[in-house]
Amino acid sequence: MVRLPRSVRQKGDTKTVKSRRSLKLPRRCVEALRLLKEAQEIAQEKAGDRWKGTDLVFCTRTGTPVTAHNVRHDFRKVVEGAGLTGREWSPRELRHSFVSVLSDSGVPIEDISRLVGHSNTVVTETVYRHQIRPVIMQGAAAMDKIFGS
Fold first, then answer.
1. What's the CA angle centered on 73, arms 118 and 134, to 5 degrees?
2. Residue 1: its pLDDT value, please?
3. Which residue intervals define the domain Tyr recombinase in the entry (predicted)?
């Protein structure tokens, strides 16, 4: 017998909107992981004898652990594909941009702090909360160009 979470009723519906939203996440995660596994199987086939088979969820094209260098390199390729200068951007910039955009959109600092994993608002306010800079506006313009506005 399958035990349902307390927020799920016998007929499968949930008690609250938040419960329904949280039940959707695992299906989305499972699908994303399934697609990732398929991509890794293709990468393993291409790598042949070079494949290291570490059973990692996120790995390089040869199955080895992902390093900070790998992430920066791949990130810069994406940035350059969006028409920006790769060396001017890092994954860390996304975090700053995320906080700035939320802040400028009126999201309460307490909510932003929780979203970025801070235990209180002090770090969020002193380090991350700043007005959108021109470089971020350039990134937003590139996103509009890519996805249409």
1. 60
2. 44
3. 1-142
